[in-house]
Amino acid sequence: MFWRKRQPLHEQLAREGGMTPAEQGPFDTGPRWGEVGIHGIHRQREWDAVATAEAPELAGDEARFVVLVDGSILTETDDLDLDPLADALEGSVEAPYRAEAVRRGDGLWAVAARRVQVVEVPEDVDGDRATLTVRNGERTLEVDGMTAFGSIPTLERLAGDDVVVTAQRLDETLWEVELNRL
CA-CA distance, 105 to 153, in Å (whole number)? Predict the structure, then answer.
């Protein structure tokens, strides 16, 4: 009687199924630390409120808008009457907020919103986006991606130390502002 090592069942089935080791390809044993569920850190919440709205009269498939404290709506898409979409969010998120809506069938829309900070910037700014970075007392200002000289005093007052202030123009003097501490 010969004593030989038995082939593991998975290898035997692979051989009988016509798979050779070269066809199996390499096995990736690298860690997947960036994938949700592996490291135990959940994704950051993107929306403060989500709702559905019936608005069959709206044209298009998506809409973006900002609702101000006074209830006025600033649209970033076609001049549509977005009141039905804003009404669907009423009571679930406090203005001011930025919202995005996507058509999900005949007249049904999914609407999501997150609160934003809106600031009146009376200074004359030659652009629609501004980034003010303050690090160790040194200030850098970019307007529309280009280094700018001078300052925007309203954003400077918001900044403080070690912060990045990102601002996007909503209309003539209203800007959406985000502060990120360094």
Answer: 47
